[in-house]
User: Fold this.
Amino acid sequence: MSDIAGTKPALRWVVHLSVIFLVVLWVIPTLGLLVSSFRTADQISSSGWWRSLFPSEQNLTLRSAEPETQVLENGVYVIEGALFSADEQATISRWGISSRDVDAFEPGETTELRRGGTITVDAVGNYRMENTEEFTGNRGARIFVTAELPPEFTLGNYQKVLLDQSSTDSMAKAFFNTLTVTIPATIIPILVAAFAAYALAWMDFPGRALLIAAVVGLLVVPLQLALIPLLKFHLNIGIGKGYLGVWLAHTGFGMPLAIYLLRNYMAGLPRDLIENARVDGATEFQIFTKLILPLSFPALASFAIFQFLWTWNDLLVAKVFLIDATGQTTVMTNRIVELLGTRGGNWEILATAAFVSIFVPLVVFFAMQKYLVRGLLAGSVK
Amino acid sequence: MTPALQGLLTIAIGVSGCVGYFYLSNQFLDTVLFPPRGPNAGRNINRANMIRPWLFLFPALAALGLYLAYPVVETLRLSLTERVPGGGYKWVGLDNYSQMVAEPKFWEAMRNNMFWLIVVPAMSTGFGLLVAQLTDRIRWGNFAKSLIFMPMAISFVGASVIWKLVYDARPAEQDQIGILNALYIFFGGAEPQTWLTVPFWNSFFLMIVLVWIQTGFAMVILSAALRGIPEETIEAAILDGANPFQIFFKIKVPQIKTTILVVWTTITITVLKVFDIVFAMTNGQWETQVLANYMYDKLFRANDWGVGSASAMVIMLLVAPILVWNVRNARKEME
Assistant:
């Protein structure tokens, strides 16, 4: 009642239309890649993905069956067949038998073949060739058709990218590597940060305010600064480049946000609850594990999602701390960047690879959106 | 050992190590060091309570110190030194910085970064506010918001691939497969454009990718802030005959000013750190260099740790005002 929406009917339409426009604008780029990942290389390079959603008119060069399939019917040699398989449902509008005149005939018309005999093609692609003499040669006659084909999609790209182990474009290994990086890098910081957050929220000690301020400060320190010093440190203590290094790095980089989010949430828990427990003789350790941790579940979930998305989508930390010269430990984001370099034009591979890597975060996102929003709000709105 | 197994083992060791550390250290404190019984029970309890916070904090502080605080100091040191071939460092003062500012690529990165810093936060916050306001009272608002929020889950690299397809260009005689060129031709453009290679404007095409990602973030936070505005102020404005636009700009926006500022600064920090998009889409070619990618080039391609660290310090310097502002806000809140 009080808003731009809802005052006047005309204005309300404008609001609805603008929102539809914005949503379409935001969804179209992703949709384009998703649709492309289900098309063959030829389809992608011959027409825009938005056309693939509708039947499209295409010029095709097809061939009849070979002369050896001919049969003798009442003294006439006949070759019969279909240009399209039963599930293709094409509709032919024009056809021809010469490359110089590809749309000479309408469906149902009959014409003479150059090497003798006649041919008829109907609208759904059934053809019949007749000749009083035997058809010769070992290849069928070329037939040019202008046909309207229904949308056609394939799972072949996904098969190639995910299941084909021998393929150089395989993402299977990178997928598991990403998973291997992500799960420990999500779980370990939560635990470490939860204890610290409890201390910062509910224990009184000198320097507490200063520590909280320091955490807020470290929240915005660009991790770019950490690359060289930490790589040096990892090399010095013998971890080198590898999973352990990347887990430690993600734990360190995720720590400020984890402490900050969890402390804010824990500080908001009712004071009575904790003081009653203390009066009842519970130790701090018991209060933390039996009371605080279960109650903080929403905040723990929020941070877990952030950290999961961040580690799954990360490129820089993996490149610096994980991926060595052998490339055995490559992650998906890095594979995709490599593909962008080497297979820049092969959209079927690129689109599929990108979607394989996008899919998991999207599922997490839609399943746990509530916690993500809650975490964002706790992190920034005061 | 396969990495998957190593991962599981790490989770097991990490988790049990953490739990073990916290449990055992607390036990040690309570039963061995300062047991709360005997002649000094009262004193012991107090002492134990003074030490306990630090037991809880220790692993987190160690991680923070080692992975974030120490690198700032170390990077500063590296930016003032130069590696001597064969090992060791030599103090070179501000040489790295002067070498850096003499490079045109650095200034190109600085100039582009300034545009990024203006355009991305402004557009993300603007679009976010627009969507938040428009979807506030419509029935399918949550559905719309969730779709606009979706790019937040997509990696910068994934987003780069998505947008590269949008910007794709084919020779003029072929069908365009990039939707931007298809629209451009449809609306009377003469030649398909290779958008990412047109200097100056190509940076804006890269910025759009980040705006596309960050708008959802701005929208979520601003939408919550809009809902938090007390109804009475708006009702009063309506009674006084304010039109919807006056209500929005004169009543609502001023009330959520602080939130807008928080969103703006948060996106600003993301912009300063943005690396993946430029790295994946143009790699700084065609005058699209930005600081974070410039730094990566110096550190890992040119292997010049001195200048690389110097450029990292420039990023730190640009973040510093926001850092100070955040810390001051946090302290004010706690008082």
User: Anything to note?
Assistant: DSSP finds 14 helices and two strands in chain B. Chain B has a mean pLDDT of 84. Residues 97-334 of chain B form a domain with the MetI-like fold fold (CATH 1.10.3720.10).
